[in-house]
Design a protein that fits this description.
The protein is mostly helical. The chain has a single domain, classed as MFS general substrate transporter like domains (Growth Hormone, Chain: A, Up-down Bundle), CATH 1.20.1250.20. The protein is 78% helix and 0% strand. It has 16 helices and no strands. The longest helix is centred in the middle third of the chain and has 32 residues. It is globular and about 55 Å long.
Length: 418
């Protein structure tokens, strides 16, 4: 009990100056957290290989992180509805630091798994950051704020692997220790610069029920429109997760690219993600309803997935990747914004936590399913297969685009909350 009490105390130590937007501090907090993630992730297969892990164990080492996020993201969201966003962010960031230090000290496969389990459980802070944005933004600017998280993710995944690769030349444990120290620095930054966003009057009474249990899950989905938004979020994430899990292999089989070329293509995708979510979404959201952004993003995903298997040469490949990454970058923040609007202010953390668990489920299923289809039917098959999911996403998004309006927030709290 001591650690949560310490964080509740830290969350009240300081506040941002009056009138200053907390969003830059939140962006920096999320960016630093995801940069630490980017430093470590490319090195995990190498650690597993040094410890004579089987290919299945190496794959499970990646999947276990998303599995833990599936379980823990709705818990963090629900807890933040009760105690506030700030202490949950501080606690999860510190637990992330501990997971990096454990990873750096790992001498066995079992310890590697323990570190990734801890990292996945601690890494469920994205819905809390989204709920924070929903707390401090109006409806007009919310999609832009949600895009900020995507931009932080893209930027962290561009810079993190480059830093990790350089640090690995210094020593085999240096990247993990650096990532752990970075997280501790992030805790200090958040403690000093990030104010609480959820007033005590709007906090929910906490019940010891997992938000993915039947009752709380039904409550999270019972607001009209929520189920279709969650289904859209799952499909959009699934399409991109298949690309994440299979592209490095497909690039070699389809285009003959070596690892250096593949690294360059991932860098390109990170830049596209930063531009779309960090700049384009903000500009478009002031002029275009979120439903239209979701439909346009889903259509771009579909076009990119159909184009990628038949692309000829580098220009075609870059175009297909831009459509896939850009489509996901348009649709995801708009969906998070819409989901936050159909939830009550008191239940945003819970509902956004459920949405992130839906996303985590897609990230577990996508790479594994894409890999199975790749092995069974060849390198083009995963993209043509998941294009069917993108087509369903387009179909589900058309009513949102036709309405041409943003759903109003629910005026009444759903029963059976977490």
């Amino acid at each position: 009990m001591t650690l949560p009490v310490v964080f509740l105390f830290l969350s009240r130590v300081s506040d941002a100056p009056q009138g200053r937007s907390p969003l830059p501090a939140l962006f920096l907090t999320v960016f630093i957290d995801l940069m630490g993630f980017g430093i470590v992730i490319p090195l995990l297969p190498l650690y597993a290989e040094r410890m004579q892990a089987t290919p299945f164990e190496a794959g499970a080492l990646v999947a276990i992180y998303s599995l833990m996020q599936l379980v823990f993201t709705p818990i963090w969201g629900a807890v933040s509805d009760r105690v506030g966003r700030r202490p949950v962010l501080l606690l999860s960031l510190t637990a992330s630091a501990a997971s990096y230090f454990l990873l750096g000290a790992a001498g066995s496969i079992a310890t590697l798994f323990a570190a990734r389990v801890m990292a996945g459980a601690a890494g469920g802070n994205i819905p809390v950051a989204q709920a924070y944005i929903a707390d401090v933004t109006d409806e007009e600017h919310r999609a832009r704020g949600m895009g900020m998280i995507g931009a932080a993710f893209g930027l962290g995944m561009v810079i993190g692997p480059a830093i990790g690769g350089g640090l690995s030349l210094v020593g085999p444990r240096v990247p993990e220790l650096f990532a752990g120290g970075l997280c501790l620095l992030n805790v200090a930054l958040a403690a000093v610069r990030l104010p609480e966003s959820l007033p005590e009057a709007k906090r929910q009474a906490f019940r010891l029920r997992h938000p993915l249990a039947l009752g709380p899950l039904r409550a999270a989905l019972e607001t009209p429109g929520t189920t279709s938004l969650m289904a859209l979020f799952f499909l959009v994430t699934l399409c991109f997760a298949v690309l994440e899990g299979t592209f490095s292999l497909a690039a070699g089989h389809l285009f003959g690219y070596d690892s250096a070329h593949v690294d360059g293509l991932w860098f390109y995708m990170g830049i596209v993600a930063v531009v779309v979510q960090g700049w384009l979404v903000g500009r478009l959201s002031r002029r275009v309803p979120e439903g239209t952004l979701v439909a346009a993003g889903s259509a771009a995903l579909l076009a990119g997935l159909l184009w990628l298997p038949v692309a000829s040469g580098l220009p075609g490949l870059l175009g297909a990747l831009a459509l896939i990454v850009g489509g996901q970058g348009l649709a995801s923040p708009a969906l998070s914004s819409l989901i936050s609007k159909v939830a009550t202010p008191e239940g945003r953390g819970r509902v956004l936590g459920v949405s992130q668990s839906v996303s985590s489920a897609a990230r577990v299923i996508g790479p594994a399913g894409g890999g199975l289809v790749f092995d069974a039917a060849g390198p083009r098959a995963p993209y043509l297969t998941v294009a069917a999911g993108a087509l369903v996403a387009v179909w589900l998004s058309l009513p949102l685009a036709r309405r041409g309006e943003r759903p109003a927030p629910s005026g009444q709290r759903a029963a059976g909350g977490a």
